[in-house]
Design brief:
The chain is α/β, with parallel strands linked by helices. It folds into two domains: 81-247, 3-Layer(aba) Sandwich (Rossmann fold); 255-462, Rossmann fold, CATH 3.40.50.1260. 35% of the residues lie in helices and 13% in strands. The protein contains 18 helices and 17 strands. It has helices at 17-21, 27-35, 45-58, 86-89, 114-128, 155-162, 175-182, 199-203, 206-213, 248-262, 281-288, 301-307, 322-335, 376-386, 408-422, 433-441, 455-461, 467-470; strands spanning 9-10, 13-14, 93-97, 132-136, 167-168, 189-191, 218-221, 244-246, 268-272, 293-296, 338-340, 344-348, 357-361, 370-374, 391-395, 426-429, 449-450. Strands 5-6-4-3-7-8 form a six-stranded parallel sheet. The longest helix is centred in the first third of the chain and has 15 residues, at 114-128. Bound molecules: adenosine-5'-diphosphate and 1,3-bisphosphoglyceric acid (X15). Adenosine-5'-diphosphate binds next to strand 14 and helix 16.
């Protein structure tokens, strides 16, 4: 296992100067915006466009987290690369699936190398043990061979981080690749071309998986961000390669997002925000089974208020989720979970960064105004509740944090978590926009764990089993003494 050392590490890797200065677009958040236009969230025209620009410009992510693995009882006990002996690795061809899906600008420059740095500890461990590393990833969502989705631009940064010249193959299967594998020295690294250049990858076609597998002796999956996809290189390949084990990054994500959440130091608080309750139903329901305190913020709170008969002005509301909101409140009560909704909100007269704003009690939102952030009383109540906790998980911003005027609640929560982290509370940031918020405030380095996967972390928090994880070998049972 990657062990905890310095606080300025990313899963064991010291943060490099470029990693700390690269302030760039979070891949998951940028893609969320592309997939979910603000117009669909109920916002129109120039405001939506300016928010998009603003949002993208402020997506800052250079994840550094202190590695403090918590191997909880329920942390999906999978065999880890750290469980393999030196003899099992020396001279062996190891197929490593990583998630190197990093954002590139128009000139093919990497704008956020977080995921590359996160993959380094596993690769270095294999190199140090004399393995021959066959590194594989997807990039983007190409339809067939598409030069702009080639992994070639990643080679210089990978080589720099690994301290060797990484060899790049032009394909991911076939005779040329086989020749390159045959000439790989112990400790060498061969980067295969984008696996998604073959449609068989996403279709998880066994013949394609078999061809990938035929390159190697054993398999390591470290691609947490893609572990929710049952693809040939994340799932299919495990049927043809034994052992199939988890890499250090995947293990750490599981340790926190499953282990620490299933077996938390209590009291355990969950903070859930974001735009819509509909996209967080699974997460809220799952966390209600585990947490002691649930704090809700973001656009979803207005559906809860409306369900309670309050006026919400022109705030974001999902009319078809009113009953659901009521049932979640009842469920929390039945389970003895202390569910807190904000007592006051910051309202705006339009959805824009320069909107007029004021703070009102949640029960007094006038017509024509919309709630875009939680208010100061709510921040105080939330902070007081968080002061009692030993574990906190956060997913989703408290307000429209892309507009400075409505970022106060989200930033206050980020600062509070940083403060708690310093006092020994386990703080977990579950991917998505909360990662961007923590980065923006500059407190990422002090959090216990910041996830590298958006969709994957949401699915894990919903209690789903990830296909890329379930396919791996079980950890050996501890020997009774
Ligand atoms: N009160 C609000 N009204 C409208 N949108 C909101 C509000 N609060 C937060 N949001 C928006 O929610 C979005 C993030 O939602 P979501 O994708 O569900 O969270 P995450 O990415 O953390 O999972 C942000 O773009 C933010 O602007
Ligand atoms: O960036 C990713 O996911 P994310 O945007 O949910 O964090 C992963 O690389 C998975 O990519 P995919 O959603 O194209 O399968």
């Amino acid at each position: 296992m990657a062990s905890a050392t310095a606080s300025h590490t990313l899963c064991g890797i010291p943060a490099t100067s470029s990693s700390t200065t690269n302030k760039v677009i979070a891949p998951s958040s940028a893609r969320f915006l592309a997939k979910t236009p603000l117009r669909r969230l109920g916002f129109a025209g120039a405001a939506a466009d300016s928010l998009f620009t603003n949002h993208v410009a402020t997506k800052l992510r250079s994840i550094k987290s202190s590695s403090k693995p918590v191997r909880g009882v329920a942390s999906m006990a999978k065999k880890s690369v750290g469980d393999l002996s030196a003899a099992e690795l020396k001279g062996k061809k190891v197929f490593v699936r990583a998630d190197l899906n990093v954002p590139l600008d128009d000139n093919q420059n990497i704008t956020d190398d977080t995921r590359i740095r996160a993959a380094v500890p596993t690769i270095k461990h294999l190199m140090a043990n004399g393995a021959k590393v066959i590194l594989s990833s997807h990039l983007g969502r190409p339809k067939g061979v598409t030069p702009k989705y080639s992994l070639a631009p990643l080679v210089p940064r990978l080589s720099e981080l690994l301290g060797i010249q990484v060899v790049k193959a032009e394909d991911c299967i076939g005779p040329e690749v086989e020749k390159l594998v045959a000439s790989l020295p112990e400790g060498g690294v061969l980067l295969l071309e984008n696996v998604r250049f073959y449609k068989e990858e996403e279709k998880n076609e066994p013949e394609f998986a078999k061809k990938l597998a035929s390159l190697a002796d054993l398999y390591v999956n470290d691609a947490f961000g893609t572990a929710h996809r049952a693809h040939a290189s994340t799932e299919g390949v495990t049927k043809f390669l034994k052992p199939s084990v988890a890499g250090f990054l995947l293990q750490k994500e599981l340790d926190y997002l499953v282990g620490a959440v299933s077996n938390p130091k209590r009291p355990f608080a969950a903070i859930v925000g974001g735009s819509k309750v509909s996209s967080k139903i699974g997460v809220i329901e799952s966390l209600l089974e585990k947490c002691d305190i649930l704090l809700l913020g973001g656009g979803m709170i207005f559906t809860f208020y409306k369900a309670q008969g309050l006026s919400v002005g022109s705030s974001l509301v999902e009319e078809d989720k009113l009953e659901l909101a009521t049932s979640l409140l009842q469920k929390a009560k039945a389970k003895g979970v202390s569910l807190l909704l904000p007592s006051d909100v910051v309202i705006a007269d339009k959805f824009a960064p320069d909107a007029n704003s004021k703070i009102v009690p949640s029960s007094a939102i006038p017509d024509g105004w919309m709630g875009l952030d939680i208010g100061p009383d709510s921040v105080k109540t939330f902070n007081d509740a968080l002061d009692t906790t030993k574990t906190v998980i956060w997913n989703g911003p408290m307000g429209v944090f892309e507009f400075d005027k409505f970022a106060v609640g989200t930033e206050a929560i980020a600062k509070k978590l940083a403060d708690l982290s310093g006092k020994g509370v386990t703080t977990i940031i579950g991917g998505g926009d909360s990662v961007a918020a923590v980065e923006k405030v500059g407190v990422a380095s002090v959090m216990s764990h910041i996830s590298t996967g958006g969709g994957a972390s949401l699915e894990l928090l919903e209690g789903k089993v990830l296909p890329g994880v379930i396919a791996l070998d079980e950890a050996d049972a501890p020997v009774a003494v």
